[in-house]
Amino acid sequence: MSERKVGTISNGVVIDHIVSGKANEIAKILNLNQLGELVVIANNLESKKTGKKDLIKIENKELSQEELNKIALISKDSTINIIRNSSVFKKYPVVVPDVVENILVCNNPNCISNHEKISSKFYCLDKSKITLKCHYCEKKQNEIKIK
Amino acid sequence: MKEIKHIISIHDLEVDQINYILDVAKDIEDNPEKYKDILKGKVIASLFFEPSTRTKMSFETAVKKLGGNTIGFEDVQNTSAKKGETFSDAIKVIAGYSDLVVMRTKIEGASRLSSEIANKPIVNGGDGTNQHPTQTLLDLYTIKKEKGKLEGLTIGFFGDPKYGRTVHSLVEAITLYKPKKIKFIAAPQFQIGKEYLEMLDSKGIKYEILEDAKGNLKDLDILYVTRTQLERIVEPIDMEPLKKKYTITKALLDGENNPGLLVMHPLPRVYEITTDVDNTPHNIYFKQADNGVPVREAIISILLKVIK
After folding, report:
1. A132 interaction partners in chain B (CB closer than 8 Å)
2. What ipTM goes with this model?
3. Option in A115, A135, A138 nearest B107 (CB)
4. Prediction pTM value
């Protein structure tokens, strides 16, 4: 199915070029089911670049920096389209942050961040593979777990 | 040189900071009279939430040799942790009682957190499988003292490069001094992880992956031995041939004909160096343990800013 066949929004945001199969995960971490606005989630759309892609359209929504960081960690090549009056007002790629604070849970059960009420903190060592190093236990991790 | 505020991880230290710690340790060891009262009136909290013999005793010896006092507990069961107090609260309170806190914890990253919430210097005496920076510093001190330098050496890591925490930290630290070559000698299931080889590749440092010690010790300056952590192997295998193959003996060292080769071990030793090596000039593992005291004296003195 092509992108045009998916419902349109007049004001809001389109998260495009999401890795196929990851749109539902992004919708969940953005709590879109509780937003009370029009939300369109499309899976497996045709993509010239990657063959298949997912896409999310959200009416009357602006994304915070923390939300953009979460999207980048789940699908690093996503692009954001800001829609105003049914036209694309601004378009930009998400950026994987150098430091990820209070977004992820450390995969090491023996890490202090899983035992005390503190903010987690990770350093991104490799943005292409999303390799992170925990500030506290120093363990490197590739599988991310959002709080 | 940047100020050293805490000792949490060997990764935090720059080469000039490490050199400064080693120089101060040497001066303290050579001139004990000059330093005997520099910690007078200072209280060091020694918090060993995990059992430790050598590290705890060497820290406490270091404080006493410099005229300071220690506070602490013998058994974590007798602390307020048992009543449900958070680690963060306990550290804030104890840091308030003392001038510096040394800690060993099972939980990884606990000393990093402490350095951020307590208003006193923190020394990590080992946090789980993560870091044990004072061991690495005493290893470097031992190599420098015995070989006269840290640069350009050929170093072998024998036994368990895969799981040995001390090996990982020393490999990373020694790369700061541009080693000539590093040899990893171990059974395939205990061989060094590929992330360390990638790190050596990125720094242009030569290395060899070897299974047998025999014939491969002739060009080494240092052989760093660690116990093979056989308990890490899940599938049942016959341990005895592995133990035999990965043991350093006097006969093996004699056969290598390398009189300058020095053998180190973080201790405790189990079977991996036979006792007949103890009485050879190759043995520096007991001196290495002794060196924990001046190195920890230096660390505490630097953090408390009592070095003139």
Report:
1. none
2. 0.90
3. A115
4. 0.92
